[in-house]
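Backbone-to-sequence.
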C-alpha cells in the first residue's frame, strides 16, 4: 500500500512538472486578437464594416483585445478636401491595456467625434489599430471602414 502511494505521488509530481510550464507558456504566449467596433451615438446603433451612414453623426470607436496585456495605437482618417492631403488624420492615440495601464478591462474607446462630409456630401472613414504584446509573436492589426453619403437618404 505504501509503495502504491509513493508511485501515485511520484506520478502526480511528474505530471505537474510536465504540465505547469506548458500551461504557463500557453497563457504567456497567447496570440493577441483584436477587433474594432464603431457606435453611432446619434442613433444609438452600431455601425457595420462597409456601411454607409446617411447623416453626419457623432460616433465612438472602441478597440478590444482577447485578454492579452498590450500596447498599441489607433488612428482615424477621412478623405481630405481639395487642396488638403488625400487622407487626413482625424484622431490618433496610443493606448495600453493590461495590468500597468489606466484602461480598465479588455478595451479602449476614443472620445466621441463628429463624422463630417466633403462639400459633395460624402466621405470615406478609415480606422486602424495595431497592438503589441510583451511576448514573442504577440502583435496584431485590425481595420474598419465606413462611409457617409448625405445625398442618398
Amino acid at each position: 500500500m505504501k509503495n502504491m502511494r509513493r508511485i501515485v505521488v511520484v506520478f502526480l509530481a511528474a505530471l505537474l512538472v510536465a504540465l505547469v510550464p506548458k500551461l504557463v507558456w500557453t497563457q504567456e504566449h497567447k496570440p493577441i486578437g483584436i477587433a474594432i467596433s464603431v457606435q453611432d451615438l446619434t442613433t444609438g446603433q452600431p455601425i457595420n464594416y462597409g456601411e454607409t451612414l446617411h447623416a453626419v453623426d457623432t460616433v465612438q470607436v472602441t478597440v478590444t483585445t482577447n485578454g492579452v496585456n498590450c500596447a498599441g495605437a489607433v488612428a482615424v482618417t477621412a478623405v481630405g478636401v481639395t487642396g488638403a492631403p488625400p487622407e487626413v488624420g482625424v484622431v490618433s492615440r496610443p493606448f495600453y491595456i493590461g495590468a500597468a495601464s489606466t484602461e480598465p478591462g479588455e478595451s479602449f474607446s476614443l472620445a466621441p467625434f463628429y463624422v463630417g462630409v466633403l462639400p459633395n456630401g460624402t466621405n470615406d472613414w478609415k480606422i486602424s489599430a495595431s497592438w503589441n504584446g510583451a511576448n514573442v509573436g504577440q502583435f496584431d492589426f485590425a481595420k474598419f471602414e465606413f462611409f457617409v453619403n448625405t445625398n442618398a437618404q
